[in-house]
Design a protein that fits this description.
The protein is mostly beta strands. It has helices at residues 173-176, 191-195; strands at 5-6, 15-16, 31-37, 43-48, 55-61, 72-78, 85-90, 101-107, 126-133, 142-158, 164-170, 183-189. The strands form three sheets. Strands 7-8-9-10-11-12 form a six-stranded antiparallel beta sheet. A four-stranded antiparallel beta sheet has the order 3-4-5-6, with no helix packed on it. The longest helix has 5 residues, at 191-195. The radius of gyration is 17 Å and the shape is globular. The N and C termini lie far apart (38 Å). The relative contact order is 0.13. The mean pLDDT is 95.
């Protein structure tokens, strides 16, 4: 199950929110969830799962704790069963931004080197990719591979000058196995690089 923990008193006390994504036959073992605030103040969760569709799950709440929308699979965001990262790049009208923009990172891959793909089972962790949405996560209009090789867990951040940072694990599968990585890498790039065709 996936939920949030929230505070209404600047962190003095904490409460559990409602279940955002239950574990069901359709939404299998939701976990390793990332969150982003949308332009209207609501909160969107982007959720890893072991579901047979191999797509990321998405749900939205007006207050980030209650009234979560029915989870849906985002057909654009492939799910090899691995952690991802999400961050707001810009909010229209704030600091001169002309558009709302959200960035998402994860291994963009559903294949296995051994060719033994099975529903709901891990796929090779490789091809960590950044995707860009300009409509609050409804669609993803740009996609750029950061690390085509063996690469897995990632997180993404934006500096005040608009530089995008992606921290991710990489290595050689034959040396480190399916889950461990020999290196932790910090990639630095800009929005223009993400949007380049």
């Amino acid at each position: 199950m996936t939920s949030t923990i929230y505070s209404d008193d600047q962190g003095k006390t904490w409460k559990a929110g409602e279940i955002a994504v239950p574990c069901t036959e359709e939404w299998i073992n939701p976990n390793e969830t990332v969150a982003v605030e949308l332009a209207d103040g609501s909160v969107m969760l982007n959720v890893r799962s072991e579901s047979r569709k191999h797509r990321r799950l998405v749900t939205v709440s007006k207050d980030g704790a209650t009234g979560w929308s029915t989870p849906r699979f985002d057909e654009t965001l492939l799910e090899p069963i691995c952690m991802g990262g999400i961050v707001r790049y810009s909010l229209a009208g704030v600091n001169g931004a002309d558009k709302n923009r959200i960035l998402f990172t994860n291994p963009d891959n559903l294949a296995r080197e051994d060719g033994k793909e099975q529903e709901g089972k891990n796929r090779d962790r490789k091809n960590v990719t950044v995707k860009l949405s300009e409509d609050e996560g409804k669609t993803w209009t740009a996609s750029r591979a950061i690390e085509p090789g063996f690469s897995g867990y990632s997180d993404v951040a934006v500096t005040p000058d608009g530089t995008i940072l992606c921290l991710y694990g990489k290595g050689e599968k034959k040396e480190f196995g399916g889950f461990a990585f020999g290196q932790i890498v910090l990639a630095r790039f800009n929005l223009e690089w993400v949007q380049a065709r």
